[in-house]
Amino acid sequence: MTDYGPEQEMEIEALEAILMDDFKEIHSSESGLDTSNRCFQITISPQDDDADDPMDTPVQLALIFSHTEKYPDESPLLNVKSIRGIQTVDLRILKEKLEQEASENLGMAMIYTLVTSAKEWLSEKYGQDASNENIEDEQAAKEDIIVPHGEAVTVDTFLAWRERFEAELALERAKLMPESALTAPKEKKLTGRQWFESGGAKGAAPIKEGSDEEDEEDIDFDDDDFEDDEEDMLEHYLAEKSDSSSHSSRRAN
């Protein structure tokens, strides 16, 4: 009478060494098999064995088996369960496929052969769908990325913008000042602050000491006071600023 025990034990040791964490012994009550013999569960996913994180796969199944008394001269008891994402109808198809292959491999240890077949089936059945989902997710992620538009800000562009901004600000201030303040000789020109503090902002002429208010003339702001071309005023401001910067550089030297 043939003793199948040693051969079955050798196969279990080989499966433990090859499959490592994917192979474990479970209680017969968890197996779904009609047996009280030792039962084992193998976790199978459609990824390659060297994948970084198999828990990220959308589908995963458990192949459960138990050796019969005369295995491998007779087929093992088999069952398949979905761990994640596999439909019942597909499990039924896979189980029938594995049982057929087991009957074709009688006389030799066949569990690892069945594991390989289940992995290939899972990859063909769900691997392409998973790849398509990954492609769609990657495409959606790319569409969510906001691509910046416009010119990148550099030191030179910022300085040019600031100079332009200061010129426009000076122009706005100039619009509030009378033409006499703008055309006066340089040594007599009032700054915006001096003109504002002197009361010019309220439409009143600056008050000189020792003079009577009756002798003063009110400044009448007509539209004619603001007919100067804004671009000319900007150029005038920028030219003065450039001259001022040149004088500062000469003093520093």
General description of the model:
The protein is an alpha+beta fold and 253 residues long. The chain contains eight helices and four strands. It has helices at residues 5-19, 28-31, 88-104, 111-144, 155-175, 179-183, 192-197, 230-252; strands spanning 23-26, 39-44, 60-66, 77-84. The chain has a four-stranded antiparallel beta sheet.
Report a brief summary of the structure.
The protein has helices at residues 5-19, 28-31, 88-104, 111-144, 155-175, 179-183, 192-197, 230-252, and strands at residues 23-26, 39-44, 60-66, 77-84.
Defining key terms:
253 residues, alpha+beta, 4-stranded antiparallel beta sheet, 8 helices, 49% helix, GIR2-like, RWD domain-containing protein, RWD_dom, UBQ-conjugating_enzyme/RWD
Count of helical stretches? 8
Radius of gyration computed on alpha carbons = 45 Å
Distance from first to last alpha carbon: 112 Å
Helical content, roughly? 40-55%
Give the oligomer, counting copies of the same chain as homo and different chains as hetero: single chain
User: What class do helices, strands and sheet pairing give?
Assistant: alpha+beta
- Strand line-up across the major sheet: 1-2-3-4
How many E strands? 4
Main pleated-sheet profile: 4 strands, antiparallel
Order of helices and strands: HEHEEEHHHHHH
Overall, the morphology is: rod-shaped
What percent strand?
Answer: 5-15%
